[in-house]
């Protein structure tokens, strides 16, 4: 990742880069405000500051405010109407969000869905389209249109429990849009002076976004690390984690060298998957028993190590500090040697 105005520093041999990086993050993080703010045009609040740092470092799979920024191809970026058409393909529209009311008759195994006329018009949907989608998704059903209502009958009367489950699933079924995208808005880019339109979504589904016509596939960004990992791989996820950490720090006016941010992102992703920095990730998976025990859940680690007959190689920093042995950092990495001939001369002089 290229970071502007970032100076390059040569690391001194034996430098405790992990401890320095941890301190560089930990101290300024205590100054951060626990707050959130509303992103323009997006209903959900966007998590920033310390909560966002914890979300990234803990590698939480369910993030509080996943977002996607979607750039459009040349034929769409300058045309607001075309941008709106692309946006309409993103928002997930559930059947229940279009309803005024619904009635279930389990005795006759039928359900009556009464749709809101205005909501159907806003979503550009018809009952015929909805009926076709439901019949394609669910088996053993008949649909009948009655004005602005749709009557659904389950063909098998014997399985009342499965009919009830099916009716619930029907109301939660997405008629259009991408899974997980709760809302999408069209925004205009005034920073570069080109006035191009782009789309911001509340929710992340990169795999689905790549299939939408008009999306610039080379300029698609998500702040959900696991979505990036699934679609683009571990290197892209590493860059995204580093970028989000730096952006969050910059928003709080906290200056942290990118070499520390990059080291943390590397440590979280070097194994080919994303690991948290806590007891369930980097700290809890160390080879050393003492190192694991010194972080959290001390008794558990010692008991497990004794049961399975583990050995501690004592090659790291934490475990050597615990037993009072010289650590392999700084001057502790330097080993002195003397030739036998020189040693004889020293002894002779003595």
Strand sequence of the main sheet, in spatial order?
10-11-3-12
Total strands: the figure is 12
Straight-line distance between termini: 59 Å
* Gross geometry: elongated
Offer a quick outline of the entry.
The chain has helices at 17-29, 49-57, 74-77, 80-88, 117-122, 127-137, 160-171, 206-209, 225-232, 234-251, 258-269, 289-295, 298-308, 318-323, 340-349, and strands at residues 36-38, 45-47, 67-72, 93-94, 99-105, 110-115, 141-146, 149-154, 174-176, 183-188, 197-202, 215-222.
Tell me the layout of helices and strands.
Blueprint: H1 17-29, E1 36-38, E2 45-47, H2 49-57, E3 67-72, H3 74-77, H4 80-88, E4 93-94, E5 99-105, E6 110-115, H5 117-122, H6 127-137, E7 141-146, E8 149-154, H7 160-171, E9 174-176, E10 183-188, E11 197-202, H8 206-209, E12 215-222, H9 225-232, H10 234-251, H11 258-269, H12 289-295, H13 298-308, H14 318-323, H15 340-349
Antiparallel strand pairs: 1-2, 3-11, 3-12, 4-9, 5-6, 6-8, 7-8, 10-11
Helix pairs in contact: 1-11, 2-10, 9-10, 10-11, 12-13
What does this structure look like?
With 350 residues, the chain is of the alpha+beta class. The protein folds into 3 domains: 113 residues, PTS-regulatory domain, PRD (Orthogonal Bundle); 84 residues, Gyrase A, domain 2 (2-Layer Sandwich), CATH 3.30.1360.140; 48 residues, DNA polymerase, domain 1, CATH 1.10.150.390. The protein has 15 helices and 12 strands.
